[in-house]
Amino acid sequence: MQKKCLNECKNYNRRITICRGYINKHYDELIADYHFLGGIKDQTQHILLGPYECYKAYDSVFLFQKNI
Q: Which domain of life is it from (predicted)?
């Protein structure tokens, strides 16, 4: 069965959008236990990582648990 997506599927980035929404909503609580990095793909499909900024669109989010 072939997908009927023309330019962009409605499900494209759905999972990362849900994850970013959760992180943005609970960021102040989560930052106590986790480090966050946001990743954006460049033209060559490499992921450029940087500090996570709330409400910014990312292609990927990396989190690392802080040593407590």
A: Bacteria
**Per-residue CA distances from 66 to 18, 28, 29, 30 (Å):** 23, 14, 13, 10
Where are the extended beta strands (E) located within the chain? Answer: 34-41, 47-51, 60-65
37/4 Cα distance (integer angstroms) = 33
pLDDT < 50: residue spans in the chain:
none
First to last CA, the chain: 49
CB 60 within 8 A of CB 16: yes
CA dihedral 28, 25, 40, 14 (to 10 degrees): 150
Q: Please name which of 32, 33, 59, 56 lies closest in space to residue 47, comparing C-alpha atoms.
A: 59
pLDDT on residue 11? 74
